[in-house]
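Q: what sequence does this backbone want?
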């Protein structure tokens, strides 16, 4: 799978949700997420524990300007504690990111309003793209919500939360 994504600092989640709702986005969930990142030779590998369930996610990003294209694969995990132990033993943990995420959606575009422990408040947009679709077809929808939220190109962040934590 692929997604076109943008991440940015966001001070006021309530105002952002109101602006997104005015564009037709609907709140789908509040998610308590714990992402554990592991050492790997290529890309990024994380175990996401979320509201009692878990998925293993492998991804890599094409650093292509303010909007990044990511390719990813995910697998549902039946026994998260055992998988976490195995991955920690085999690969080593490089970071743990905990956040509360409010998920809003419209069509194939997800808006995440994130409260990240030890970092602050952020927004993240992901346009989910089928493998046989052109990412450029979703660029307009991503740019529309960025404009509605008042996000300037200089506000975009080109690194993951765990990389931000490592720098702080």
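A:
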């Amino acid at each position: 799978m692929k997604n076109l994504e943008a991440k940015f600092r966001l001070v006021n989640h309530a105002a952002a949700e109101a602006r997104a709702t005015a564009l037709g986005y609907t709140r789908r969930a509040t998610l308590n997420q714990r992402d554990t990142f592991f050492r790997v030779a290529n890309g990024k590998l994380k175990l996401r524990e979320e509201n009692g369930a878990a998925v293993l996610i492998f991804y890599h990003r094409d650093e292509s300007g303010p909007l990044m294209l990511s390719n990813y694969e995910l697998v549902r995990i039946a026994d998260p504690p055992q998988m976490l132990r195995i991955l920690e033993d085999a690969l080593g943990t490089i970071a743990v990111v905990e956040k509360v995420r409010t998920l809003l959606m419209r069509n194939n575009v997800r808006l995440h309003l994130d409260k990240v422990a030890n970092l602050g408040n952020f927004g993240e947009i992901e346009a989910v793209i089928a493998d046989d679709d052109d990412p450029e077809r979703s660029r307009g929808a991503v740019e529309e919500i960025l404009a509605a939220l008042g996000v300037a190109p200089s506000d975009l962040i080109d690194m993951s939360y765990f990389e931000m934590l490592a720098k702080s």
